Amino acid sequence: MKAQVFMADYRASSRSRNGLAKIAALLEKAGLRSAIKPGDLTAIKIHFGELGNEAYINPVLARAVSGAARAAGAKPFFSDTNTLYSGSRANAVEHLETAAAHGYVESVCGAPVLIADGLRGSDWGEVEVGLPRLKAVKIARAFLDADSMLVLSHVKGHEMAGFGGALKNLAMGCAPPVGKREQHAVKFFVKAAKCVGCGRCVEVCPQGAAAMGREGKASIDQAKCIGCGECSMHCRIRAIGLDWETEILPFSERMAEYAYGAVKGKAGRVIYLNFVKDVVPDCDCAPWSDAPVVADQGILASADPVALDQAAYDLVKAAPVAPGSELEGRAGPGDDKFALLHPETRPLAQLEHGERIGLGSRDYELVRI
Q: Is there a single domain that holds both residue 208 and residue 285?
């Protein structure tokens, strides 16, 4: 039987429900009352956005989710994990300050905010998965200890994964820095012929692996590189590379296996929502937000994260390109927007592997409410 994915659009007027009411209705359709039990400590997985980013999920919309969890008798909390790279979310203090700056405080989002892997990312446990790429994964303690989960994901492009949705949110977002490093496990290098010596990669590298040489070109020490991709994301002329042919598929599959481990033991206790809104080219980890490449499509909900991501992917693929975006003049309805944004990536590999390992199904029925 096809997995059900429920969808509400963003239209609202005096004759229809507003977005907050639509979110509550979507959660009910997706099985909130059976997934969330009275007394549950319910983790609401969210990405608070890097400082300078503005495409993250609006905390007012997130409040509808925490409100629905409270109405079911649960005790919800919003949470994410510390980052592998340097930035505004590398430890719990700065992470909470960033969350607050973006409106994620209890008075706005309706539930307490905590960082799932502790002050410096050391509070985690190991989950045995026994999968082709990984035998065990490392998951932040608060997500392990939560009774149930609501996973809120902003759909967008990604410079390594190609596509960011529920699986990536689970995989990277539920892992502490050491788990993020295990997923990346790739090595970046500088294309000397393209490097202009701006030094941006040196500024952002959290390990000091990037350095400037006497000839005015940057280089990356392979022994120090942790594969976080920070240098690549900040290089404006794309002078940072990796061996895409051999490294991107294992990366995508490790990510899917981490997503599997993040919800292992919570069968029937997780509901997923994808916000297909502000579909920008890069991750919310970037300290900027480019123009969305398509118009806002809607909010999706499902108990199946693979089906949910596939439905979101298909909606973006089918949509016309937004004027003034990076894809203007390069794509149209039916073109694979995510593959065009980051052509070296394999955006669907994570979903293909997720289906193979039993995380969910790519075969879905879209039910509009």
A: no
Whole-number pLDDT of residue 113? 98
Residue 7 β-bridge partners: 300, 368
Same domain for 257 and 120: yes
Shared domain for 274 and 153, answered yes or no, is: yes
Query: Tokens for 256?
Result: 């899917």
Q: Give me Rg for the CA atoms of the chain.
A: 20
Domain range for 120 is: 3-182+249-368
φ/ψ of 153, rounded to 5, equals -125, 135
Q: Do residues 226 and 209 make contact, with C-beta atoms less than 8 angstroms apart?
A: yes
CATH (domain of 211)? 3.30.70.20
Contact 283, 48 (CB under 8 A): no
* pLDDT < 70 positions in the chain: none
The verdict on 166 and 203 lying in the same domain is: no
What the block records as the tokens of 205 is 């590298």
pTM: 0.90
Same domain, 334 and 351: yes
